[in-house]
Structure prediction request, 520 residues.
Amino acid sequence: MISLRNVSKDYGGSTKALESVTLAIEKGEFVFIVGPSGAGKSTLIKLLYREETPSTGQVVVLGKDLAKLRRREIPFLRRRIGVVFQDFKLLEDKTVGENISFALEVTGTPTREIKKRVAQVLNLVGLKDRRDAYPNELSGGEQQRIAIARALVRNPDVLLADEPSGNLDPKTAHEIFSLLERANMYGTTVVVATHAQDMVNLLKKRVIELRNGTVVRDERRGAYSS
Amino acid sequence: MRFIGYVFSEAFRSLWRSKLSSFLSSLTTGFALFLLGISFLVSVNLGYIYTVAEQQMEIQAYIIKDATAEQISAAVERVQGIPGVSTVKYVSKEDALEELKLMFKDKASVLDSLKEENPLPASIRVKTTGVDEIDAVVAEIQTLDIIDDVIYQEEVSRRMMSIGRAIQYVSLGGMVAVGAVSIMVIGNSIRLTIDSRRHEIAVMKLVGATDGFVVGPFILEGVVIGIVGSILGTFFAVGIYNWLFERLYEFIPFMPMYVLDTQSKLQMFGIMAITGIVVGAAGSVLSVRRHLKV
Prediction:
């Protein structure tokens, strides 16, 4: 499903963001990427949805070699990948419902189908009565749930999350991680870069630890630190 | 089809959502196009003044004394057939005297002595369609055997020709310069609008929108702003022109000034609308493209 072979990423600074990273993630896995700030977690996530390209090495996602992907093919890759960010990245001037349906509109889904799917996914994240609210009327936790709903509304093969609970209190973070776990139970491959120690320890999933851009630990049912 | 529906609903929603900034962009565009319109009107007027002056250029071909009536009418007919000739008028000896009397007005009595023996020659007066044709027409008239002498304002016609060319260059250059400024003003206002929405563009790309999906609504917004701007611009330009026209007419009643008819208003609106639409659309595409590489 996802494989990196000898991947390095150099932003041009004195150190590399990633150096010779090789790893494979199978379909249906739930993987935590942990490590201190600046270890390369965000860069790794960005490589997976082709916001960045590796300086050397090969990144394959959903059977596509991302370095060989043509520019106009990128949107079609992204439609099979849901991405969740620390800062939610919702459109402030669109309602909750519009934010979610937008992800379907770009794929040309029929209006009736969009309505149905938006209602389903809002139900899933427990916010079906906030459909007509604007993002700034919601709490941080609610906004992140909307972002997850937007990521899930297309039934993606892969769900990527970069510090999804970075701005949230522990209780809210817990809600967010349960949602990610639920998505995983429906068969979506989930990759989460996080600092949320408690959650990593609680969920006991595969843990990949990065330090200075290299993989220092890759453990089944691991904890935040070894 | 769904894509078109999406583009329209998105574009109009976003224009409406940011009413103030859409209005200001239209106003800026309108002002830039107004300047373009004014330079159009200046060029139309220069052309008009030139045409008026051109039409007053006249060739006088004097007829020999013993020409018969048949010879004269044959000559008039031949002159009419020369390419570039617009009007031909035969002025008999008597007509020439009447004209002279009119010029002297109350002192016309001094001409009484001429009655018995009118020394004025009969002539054919010819106007051409433009100064460029004068030389050729004169040459042709001189070949007629009943023509004694041809008089025309040779120096004036030569000057007119070079002034005419200068006017063409100046007004074209002016319009190009003002056009370039309008393009920059409109393009810049669009760029600012789009830069303020780069976050939105990035999110769209992130959820897998194709470039067309992102750019489509922006193009339509640019086009709408261009159209509204050109309506505003035409409105201002026509208003100011008519106001000026009345003021100037009071002071200088003989000043040849072009009366704006519907056709020239439409022509001006057309120039503005095309500029507005093209620049609006192109400006949107170029500005959005800078944010598409996400």
In short: Residues 170-185 of chain A form the longest helix (16 residues).
